[in-house]
């Protein structure tokens, strides 16, 4: 719907979509590397741009029950990770509103 | 009239003095010369002092000046004789003559008065100065004994050394903001330049030393003095004129000097030039700024208060172009208005001709959505810019529809393009960090790439004379000089995302659209915001705005709430038209030569044409045998309904022999009543829609159902 230009980030190390190189997030925005996704390693990011979020769904993860939505690259529509909407356990609350990007689906764009 | 030399203007006998700043024209009472016969005085005394609430003297003097400027000098002198008011008193007239003749000493004396020493009462009639005494450092002129040495007359500092006291006598009353030093400087500068032009270098040097130098010391502004003194080095009169950018004594420099000085002289003594014309301009300006639908560039008539009719404004969609299959992102009329190009997410560009809006070309080479097109100045070529995967810009030949140049070296989307007025080079803006802003030529070479960090161009616009290039980054506006390629300005704005820019035809203003919900009209040179427009919505997407209307009287913009917004350029919202539901209206463009047409592009993959529609028939004849729809603008028959045998025969012969072949010929066999009902329905919903409903493309906005001759008698009965 409508024309929108991609947002471009400014930093020394930028992660982008493997498919179309759209900027997704900065290296400095990584909060934790201790995650695993469907394709292997995944990182928790504070702020991600140029994505569209899907419908929220409840999932049971290794850390407990969460409400997450899949996020995909705005341009090529490939799924790149997910976003935490709600965490049911108190120890996982820090993840709410943050994003997971799978390392396998990212590339570095400098 | 004035027997006294330095009285401020003359006054008619007994009618009261002219306004002057505190001076007394009472001196004239003793010599009050009523040169007119007593009968005229009586008549004048009988006339009321105000003219519908306006001061009689002001109105009459302005009329006298107006008559002089219109060229009716005889009428002006008759008026001034009959009313007893003079346009300019003798002093002002003498001053004017002195300046135009180049008598500088006399001009100074008349302007500032004469320094007198000694007794309190000089010649009668102490005409005072408008100013408040002498500013320090002003050089005494005229009759001072120490002329050659340039003494400074302080506030009474020198008074002690003279036996009497000094006071100013005569002189013209000056305006409130008058800067006497400046005026004196101009007079002397003119004198100096004229002496230089006559190659009288000794005299010029004397003027420089004695009369101009004290100014520099007083105002600490030596720059101008140095500049003037450097002119001594000029070799010839032409050189002097060129270096000083001065038109010469024979040119209009004296008249210009007089204009400049007259601005500082009290307006009641010397009426500002063209006063009547200025007053009329203000009246018209008031009407135009209040007129909400003002869509003409002709000056309104003075006979009637001006207010434009809303029916003349294009508020109705009369046509929807449906050739695209996905969101339409941009549209642009060609510079001469003959074509309309629309671009879409479906990778194609459609070019229509604007007489009947038929599709002329479909350019399909791009492999992703096309977000921008730019017509070359002669409308023979088109640059298109593509997004995402394609990341290229193409130059097309409009007539053949072939792509003549492909620029695919970009790794990020190309966002906009602008042609130089020569049509040989163009600027392409993209979001590529390496080649974000670059001048290319038609062979595909990079003529000049700008290298700067963080350049990701959202939009570019060029002034029509090709001198300035305005570049929009995400949060900054840059202005470049195209000839020297220098960056002239960098305006950084907070908290906004800029989406589009357009430059006005006079090259002074730029219209910038930005998120959230802001459109601003800014000056290109200073970045100052002249006007803001609000009411529309844009927060996430690229929504474009544009100038429009006759004389760029309107601003149009798309919006994310599916409406087209139109404002008057001086601020107020004219209308918000519903369009393209659901989804955004991405861009709106106004026809460059026909102010009654504009178009909008939206996310529903349609392009809507808004045209002033008027049904020009005075009445509609419903005939029983046939109905013919005639398009005045296309000069062709659009629809021909006929069913009676005679009518069918006639229509076929008309079809074959006439040059105006109908675009459709429908032969029906209907009972007459039913057809009359159909025609009535067509009239009620307005004929073009009727034609459109039958799938016939029309763009007519003047249609008239015309009766065919064979059934005229039946029609007269039914009517």
From TrEMBL, chain A:
Q: Does the keyword Chaperone apply?
A: no
Q: Does the keyword Zinc apply?
A: yes
**Superkingdom of origin organism:** Eukaryota
Q: Which UniProt keywords apply?
A: Metal-binding, Zinc
Q: List GO molecular-function terms, semicolon-separated.
A: metal ion binding
Yippee domain span: 13-110
The record's listing under Pfam families reads:
Yippee-Mis18 (PF03226)
- Family per UniProt? Belongs to the yippee family.
**Record PANTHER family:** PROTEIN YIPPEE-LIKE CG15309-RELATED
This chain belongs to which protein, by name?
Answer: Protein yippee-like
Task: Please name the source species.
Answer: Lineolata rhizophorae
TrEMBL record, chain B:
User: Ranges of Polar residues compositional bias?
Assistant: 20-39
Source species of the chain: Lineolata rhizophorae
Q: Where are the transmembrane segments?
A: 609-630, 637-657, 663-684
Domain (CTLH): give its ranges. 179-203
Name a single GO biological process.
proteasome-mediated ubiquitin-dependent protein catabolic process
Presence of keyword Transferase? no
* Stated name of the protein: WD40-repeat-containing domain protein
| The keyword Translocase is annotated on this UniProt entry | no
Q: Where are the WD repeats?
A: 321-362, 363-406
Query: Residues annotated as region Disordered?
Result: 1-39
């Amino acid at each position: 719907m409508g024309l929108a230009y991609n947002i471009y980030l400014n930093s020394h190390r930028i992660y982008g979509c493997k498919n179309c190189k759209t900027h997704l997030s900065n290296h400095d925005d990584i909060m934790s590397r201790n995650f695993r996704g469907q394709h292997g390693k995944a990182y928790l990011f504070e702020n991600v741009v140029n994505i569209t979020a899907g419908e929220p769904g409840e999932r049971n993860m290794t850390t407990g029950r969460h409400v997450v939505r899949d996020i995909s690259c705005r341009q090529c529509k490939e799924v790149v990770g997910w976003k935490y909407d709600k965490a049911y356990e108190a120890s996982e609350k820090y993840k709410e509103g943050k994003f997971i990007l799978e390392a396998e689906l990212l590339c570095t764009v400098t | 009239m004035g027997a006294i030399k330095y009285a401020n203007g003359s006054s008619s006998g007994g009618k009261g003095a002219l306004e002057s700043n505190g001076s007394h024209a009472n001196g004239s009472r003793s010599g009050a010369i009523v040169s007119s016969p007593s009968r005229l005085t009586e008549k004048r005394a009988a006339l009321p002092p105000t003219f519908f609430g306006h001061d009689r003297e002001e109105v009459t003097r302005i009329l006298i000046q107006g008559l002089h400027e219109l060229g009716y000098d005889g009428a002006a002198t008759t008026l001034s004789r009959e009313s007893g008011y003079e346009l300019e008193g003798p002093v002002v007239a003498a001053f004017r003559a002195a300046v135009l003749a180049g008598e500088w000493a006399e001009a100074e004396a008349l302007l500032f008065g004469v320094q007198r020493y000694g007794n309190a009462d000089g010649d009668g009639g102490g005409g005072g100065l408008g100013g408040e005494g002498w500013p320090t450092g002003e050089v005494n002129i005229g009759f001072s004994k120490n002329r050659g040495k340039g003494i400074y007359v302080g506030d009474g500092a020198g008074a002690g050394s003279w036996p009497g006291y000094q006071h100013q006598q005569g002189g013209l009353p000056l305006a409130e903001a008058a800067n006497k030093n400046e005026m004196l400087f101009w007079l002397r500068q003119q004198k100096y330049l004229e002496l230089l032009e006559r190659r009288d270098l000794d005299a010029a040097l004397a003027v420089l030393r004695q009369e101009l130098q004290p100014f520099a010391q007083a105002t600490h502004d030596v720059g101008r003095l140095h500049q003037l003194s450097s002119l001594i080095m000029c070799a010839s009169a032409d050189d002097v004129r060129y270096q000083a950018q001065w038109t010469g004594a024979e040119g209009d420099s004296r008249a210009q000097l007089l204009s400049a000085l007259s601005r500082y002289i009290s307006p009641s003594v010397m009426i500002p030039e063209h006063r009547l014309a200025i007053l009329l301009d203000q009246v018209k300006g008031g009407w135009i700024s209040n007129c909400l639908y003002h869509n003409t560039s002709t000056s309104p008539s003075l006979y009637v208060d001006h207010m434009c009719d809303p029916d003349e404004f294009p508020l109705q969609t009369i046509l929807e172009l449906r050739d695209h299959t996905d969101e339409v992102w941009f549209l642009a009329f060609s510079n001469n208005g003959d074509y309309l190009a629309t671009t879409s997410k479906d990778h194609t560009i459609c070019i229509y001709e604007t007489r009947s809006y038929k599709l002329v070309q479909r350019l399909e080479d791009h492999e992703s959505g096309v977000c921008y097109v730019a017509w070359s100045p002669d409308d023979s070529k088109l640059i298109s810019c593509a997004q995402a995967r394609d990341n290229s810009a193409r130059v097309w030949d409009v007539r053949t529809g072939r792509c003549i140049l492909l620029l695919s070296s970009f790794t990020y989307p190309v966002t906009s393009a602008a042609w130089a007025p020569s049509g040989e080079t163009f600027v392409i803006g993209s979001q590529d960090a390496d080649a974000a802003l670059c001048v290319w030529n038609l062979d595909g070479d990079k003529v000049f790439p700008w290298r700067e960090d963080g350049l990701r161009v959202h939009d570019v616009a060029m002034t029509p004379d090709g001198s300035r290039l305005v570049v929009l980054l995400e949060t900054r506006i840059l202005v470049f000089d195209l000839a020297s390629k220098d960056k002239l300005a960098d305006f950084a704005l907070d908290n906004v995302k800029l989406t589009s820019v357009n430059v006005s035809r006079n090259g002074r203003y730029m219209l910038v659209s930005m998120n959230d919900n802001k459109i601003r009209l800014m000056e290109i040179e200073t970045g100052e915001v002249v006007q803001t427009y609000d009411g529309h919505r844009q927060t996430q997407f690229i929504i474009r705005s544009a100038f429009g209307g006759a004389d760029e009287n309107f601003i149009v913009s798309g919006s994310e709430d599916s409406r087209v917004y139109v404002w008057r350029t001086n601020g107020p919202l004219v209308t918000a038209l519903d369009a393209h539901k659901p989804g955004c209206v991405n861009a709106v463009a106004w026809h460059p030569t026909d102010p009654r047409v504009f178009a909008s592009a939206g996310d529903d993959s349609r392009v809507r044409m808004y045209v002033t529609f008027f049904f020009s028939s005075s009445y509609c004849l419903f005939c029983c045998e046939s109905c013919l729809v005639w398009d005045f603008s296309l000069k062709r028959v659009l629809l021909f309904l006929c069913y009676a045998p005679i009518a069918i025969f006639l229509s076929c012969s008309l079809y074959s022999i006439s040059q105006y072949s109908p675009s459709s010929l429908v032969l029906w066999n209907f009972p007459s009543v039913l057809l009359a009902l159909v025609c009535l329905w067509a009239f009620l919903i307005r004929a073009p829609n009727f034609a459109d409903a039958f799938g016939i493309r029309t763009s007519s906005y003047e249609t008239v159902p015309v009766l065919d001759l064979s059934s005229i008698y039946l029609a007269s009965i039914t009517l």
